[in-house]
Specification:
This protein is mainly α. 41% of the residues lie in helices and 3% in strands. The protein starts with a helix and ends in an 11-residue tail after the last helix.
């Protein structure tokens, strides 16, 4: 199975150059306008396989990927400081242009297949693949920019199609309705397969689960002042129910959790994992990545924050404010002269002990995980260890472009979280719903079951019910450092201000070193590490990225700028 996916990627890479030329430079490429091309299934499949490269996983070669590197949140602190993605308006941006390249690639495929002589079911399958990928690109565009131009026709000549490319932006609600239409078409037509590297109905359902939750909660919590539109309860209900439906189909599709949290993040073969819905595979000496090296090298890590550490429950199921277990978060000096936090981890959610190492690493006290050749430090002193695999030979762990663990992209744990949150937001959740979803995650984490009426946590600063707060906590702890999930969660909950470090100071704090003599890093009055002296301040304009100025100029004013920019 893994070898077949490598073939897919190789085939895709052979075609990628001509596709890029066609879509970015010379859209009149006659090769793919031929009906013979679209009537040859091997060629259509190769064309469709180019979309796999949009699912970055752990990245390729020395590049970054979806995990660990997306550190603009309250979970991590970048040692070089993460400011907002944009603080000024760029002239151009790949955040805007790259999705449109893929959207036009998908539209070209949809159009080409209309004149194909392939069997109707085959044409429907490949059209479904194109529409699934168009939907995914638009979902990401809308999250970033709000209103965007909706394109569903082929752009052959940028000069002739100027109103399509540079016209008035389409209302984001209309675009998202079109996204869901595409997803539903994909679910109905893409087909099933046991290959977790392939396009499939279950992958489309997983995407629908995520999109439904995002759109439903975004429309429930948005405000006219900050987002341009106020709450829409009817729309929120429609999308939350779509999330529930898609999630339930996957929850009854034969998937099950792995025994230990963390196994899906550091496996060299996810093909047989019962938790995985879709993943990106890597092969030793063939296609590799650098995520292990970047989280285990001498480059200072973007460490886990005090705010994130405090989110993890104690083993009695209670938060920091109300637990009766030992709250002491100071390290202990080990016989090996390392500062260790084993005692703290022993009374906390087991996921925390997988996420971070037992040893604190900072200037003057660096440390090599698993006997690695590189001594690590972290901006917060908490290092991220959940991606590492100590069974991999040292060379393949501690060099860039040599790591070959598989990357999860969609998996059951996230579906459980989507389902529980959507049901809670709808007000229809039952204890059985909790037991069949998030309580399976809590049990794996060594925690008691969540109930419909959890006790209040004084740290709840989001003005939501105790139950929704706890479901959000479970989501944060389960998916920490995964693919910008936390950032976009804060956006859809209308809580992006929570990463303002001038207000929420624990976002810019690390471990407690109050009992460490001659500390060589900056600490506050209570002994907590201060990763950076730079402050990140919230402004409501950050709910949207700015439209590139070049796009506005070329549109001659038809494309407008987002508010506040």
């Amino acid at each position: 199975m893994k070898k077949s996916y490598l073939y897919v990627l190789c085939a895709a890479s052979l075609l990628m150059t001509s596709c890029n030329d066609m879509l970015d430079k010379t859209p009149r490429d006659r090769f793919t306008e031929s009906s013979a091309f679209w009537s040859n299934e091997n060629q259509v499949e190769s064309y469709s396989n180019t979309f796999f490269e949009n699912f970055s996983g752990y990245g390729t070669g020395t590049g970054s990927g979806w995990f660990y590197f997306k550190s603009l949140s309250d979970d991590q602190a970048n040692p070089s400081f993460d400011n907002w993605t944009f603080t000024t308006i760029p002239g151009s941006s790949s955040y805007w242009s790259s999705p449109y390249t893929e959207i036009r690639r998908a539209n070209y495929m949809i159009s080409g297949l209309t004149g194909s002589s392939l069997p109707a079911s085959t044409k429907a399958k490949y059209t479904a693949i194109a529409r699934l990928n168009r939907a995914w690109q638009y979902y990401n565009l809308v999250r970033m920019y709000g209103d965007v131009q909706w394109e569903n026709t082929v752009v052959l000549d940028p000069d002739a199609d100027v109103d399509v490319i540079y016209g008035t932006r389409t209302d984001r609600d209309v675009v998202m309705d079109s996204v869901m239409n595409d997803m539903n078409y994909a679910i109905d037509n893409i087909g099933t397969t046991s290959n977790k590297n392939a396009w499939s109905k279950n992958l489309a359902l997983a995407m629908k689960s995520e999109i439904g939750l995002y759109e439903g909660t975004y429309c429930k919590y948005r405000t006219a002042t900050d987002n341009g539109k106020g709450p829409d309860a009817g729309r929120a209900s429609t999308y939350l129910n779509a999330c529930v439906d898609a999630s339930q189909q996957l929850m009854s599709a034969g998937y099950s959790l792995t025994a230990n949290y963390g196994e899906i993040y550091n496996s060299t073969d996810l093909s047989s994992s019962k938790e995985i819905i879709f993943y990106r595979n890597y092969e030793k000496d063939v296609q590799m990545h650098s995520t292990l090296d970047y989280t285990g090298s001498s480059t200072q890590q973007s460490g886990i924050t005090k705010d994130a550490i405090n989110a993890f429950l104690f083993r009695d199921g209670k938060p920091l404010a109300t637990t009766t277990l030992d709250k002491d978060d100071r390290p202990v000096l080990s016989a090996a002269n390392n500062y260790v936090i084993n005692k703290m981890l022993s009374v906390r959610d087991k996921r925390l002990g997988v996420l971070v190492d037992t040893v604190l690493c900072f200037k003057g006290h660096s440390w090599s995980r698993g006997g690695g050749s590189s001594a690590m430090t972290s901006s917060t002193t908490y290092t991220i260890g959940k991606y590492d695999n100590l069974d991999i030979p040292l060379y393949y762990r501690n060099n860039t472009g040599t790591n070959y663990t598989d990357a999860p992209l969609f998996w059951l744990a996230e579906i459980y979280l989507n389902f529980a949150e959507a049901k809670a937001e709808l007000g229809s959740i039952t204890q059985s719903d909790l037991d069949n979803s998030v309580n399976k995650l809590e049990a794996r984490a060594g925690l008691p079951n969540m109930t419909l009426a959890p006790e209040a946590d004084p740290a709840n600063n989001m003005k939501v019910s105790n139950l929704i707060w706890e479901i959000r906590r479970c989501r944060r702890c389960e998916l920490m450092t995964d693919n910008w999930i936390r950032y976009w969660d804060l956006v859809r909950w209308h809580q992006l201000d929570k990463i303002d470090t001038s207000v929420y100071t624990d976002v810019n704090r690390g471990a407690n070193l109050s009992n460490v003599a001659n500390v060589s890093v900056t600490v506050d009055a209570n002994g907590y590490v201060i990763p950076t002296g730079t402050t990140r301040k919230f402004d409501k304009k950050y709910y949207f990225f700015p439209i590139p100025s070049g796009q506005i100029t070329l549109s001659q004013g038809k494309t407008t700028q987002n508010p506040g920019w």
